[in-house]
Give the backbone structure.
Amino acid sequence: MNVEVIPAIDLRNGQVVRLRQGDYAQETQYAAAPHELAARYAQAGAQWLHVVDLDGARAGDLTNLAVIEVLAKAGMQVQAGGGVRVEDDVQRLFGAGVSRVVVGSVAIREPERVAQWLDKHGAERFTIALDTRRCDNTWTLPSAGWTEDEARTLDELAPWYAAHGARHLLCTDIERDGMLAGFNLELYRHLAQTVPQLAVQASGGVRSLEDIRAAREAGARGVILGRALLEGRFTLEDALAC
């Protein structure tokens, strides 16, 4: 089974950044301009780019939409999210050239609304982001840029979306995000067993090419690469060759 290697660009105030475990107080800024980084990824052969508007995720609006529109012209298909709450947000991202809209907080809080979008626009136009944190043997689902706790759980919503026609699921183990500790393979094996009909994208903690291979073996259909690429742990060319 092949795995889609997807480089990521996280945006805050129009700059490329990474957070540790989703903590806005633990931010690392990188010198590369977003459009320059995207151009490098496209030249390396990436077919998809994952873009997160961190300002929008916390505030509930599309703060970095203008930057996203530029990135959508870099030669890759873009999946982007952060701040998507209503139909107009979806339309604005499509209008900016985004191929697939990533829905997170609204997917947790208002699944019926998101199911309507799947029906209206098609499941291939959306990635359901159910980023999770293990708490008392339960995969919880924090929202609003991982700053607010929600009552629904991963094991409740992932099957719900599978039953309502979703195709793509992005799942980050928040505790590993930005930590270079490797993917949580237990999480992705669990998802492969419980929602095999969903194409799961693994995110959070990749540190080596072996982590990519391990995620594929655990059942992931895509891997999101952030800090490891920014810090030169390996090249995108080598990751794509995996």
